[in-house]
Design goal:
Elements lengths: L16 H6 L3 H8 L4 H5 L17 H4 L10 H7 L9 E3 L2 E6 L10 H12 L5 E7 L4 E7 L4 E7 L2 E6 L5 E6 L4 E4 L4 E6 L5 E7 L7 E3 H6 L3 H8 L15
Antiparallel strand pairs: 1-2, 2-3, 3-10, 4-9, 4-11, 5-8, 5-10, 6-7, 6-9
Helix pairs in contact: 5-6
């Protein structure tokens, strides 16, 4: 079972090998592939009613005798493959992240992770992927991303999400196993766990660059306390009560 994310907001267009083959005139396919028997061999191929990219043939064991292949060298494999489950964990108050992402200058990445990171950054419209675990009754605090839309899929647990809109209204909703959530770029949002078990999600961000995120505790401390005093009608000294954000 795979969970797939595609970097397009338009209707996804896909052309499978068999569709391309059957859309090619028989004489053109014969000249391109040069099989024994020529065009007569090409004519022995029959288009199936069902999409064989999705539905496996009932006689697959008869058709396939050897499905093994030789593993490619690491410098090729790690351009397209990343061991997310075995990668470094990044804890935060209330949970932890694991990332398949681009980091500027490969900061904090091992050699194979650097290969993957550089590969992401070389391609347009790629993705940063992560797993997010929020501990029971924990909180992924309000934050927003400067350079990416975010989508998430709930693997386990249950929770609540909130989207703070520019009008000052908050859209709140419950999330459960199998649900998909979407946060547009620049939209402040939060997620919290409300079950006894941890809330676990797979997250995808629409950027191959280093993800830029600003969290509520960071921008509170990034704003001068005399400005906050004017905004909230509270004495300036009151804002010393907020602890500084941990890095």
């Amino acid at each position: 079972v795979f969970l797939l994310f595609f970097t397009t907001h338009e209707e996804l267009q896909t052309l499978d090998v068999d569709d391309a083959f059957f859309s090619t005139p028989e004489d053109i396919a014969a000249r391109a592939l040069k099989p024994q028997g020529g065009v007569n061999f090409i004519r022995t191929f029959k288009k199936q009613v069902e999409d064989q990219a999705v539905n496996l043939p009932p006689n697959l064991d008869e058709l396939v005798q050897n499905a093994t292949y030789v593993q490619s060298p690491d410098n090729l494999v790690w351009r397209y493959f990343y061991n997310l489950k075995g990668s470094a964990e990044y804890p935060f108050p209330g949970g932890l992240f694991q990332w398949a992402r681009y980091r500027i200058n490969g900061t904090g990445l091992n050699e194979t992770e650097k290969i993957f990171s550089e590969s992401l950054n070389k391609h347009e419209n790629t993705l940063t992927l992560a797993t997010l675990r929020i501990f029971s009754n924990g909180l992924g605090q309000p934050h927003y991303h400067f350079n990416a839309n975010e989508m998430g899929y709930v693997i386990s647990g249950c929770g609540q999400a909130g989207v703070i809109l520019s009008s000052g209204v908050t859209a709140r909703f419950n999330i459960d196993i199998g649900d998909v959530i979407f946060f547009p770029v620049g939209t402040q949002h939060y997620i919290k766990s409300v079950c006894e078990e941890d809330l676990v999600l797979i997250l995808a961000y629409s950027t191959g660059n280093q993800l830029e995120t600003l969290r509520m505790n960071a921008y509170f401390h990034g704003t001068a306390d005399h400005i906050l005093a004017q905004l909230f009608f509270k004495e300036q000294a009151e804002f010393k009560k907020f602890p500084k954000a941990a890095k």
